[in-house]
Amino acid sequence: MTRKVAMFMVVVLFFNISLSCFPQLIDVQQLAKADAETDTNRDMWLFLSGSTCALGILAGYGVGSMIDPNWTSGLLGSSPNDAQCNGMFIGPAVGYLSLLIAISVIPARPSAERLLGKSPEYIQAYTKAYKDETQWIRTKSMYVGIIPGTFFGCLIAYAILTSGY
Q1: Does residue 140 register a pLDDT over 90?
Q2: For the residues of 47-90, what is the DSSP string, one character each?
């Protein structure tokens, strides 16, 4: 009985080891996505989108002030005129639109070392998955950066509106 159990254990061990010796098939899309994750600079896109609102408000206010530098007087005191207020809304919108355009225009290319010696089908599938994942990471980072950027932009707009200058 012990001999049969020992023989059974040897057979199970042998077949278990032999199956794990075969090379594992790696999905091309998963590999491309993992490479895109490591190559994409999330912090840069987060910073760009976060600073876009604040800089857009300041730039829009500046352009509005060049168009009409006089403040209007109202019941609560002086306040920015229509050109300045419109500039404070248009500036961030133009900034965010330019970021969306930049995400789609700036190329996402995998390094050539990863594609050397691969078949054309592999290269095509890898490149497509890499580009799609890179664009998704950039877009996701931009949307995450919009939240604090809009908050600080609103603080800047509030400071401009209540300053009285």
Answers
A1: yes
A2: HHHHHHHHHHHHHHHHHHHHH--PPEEETTEEE--HHHHHHHHH
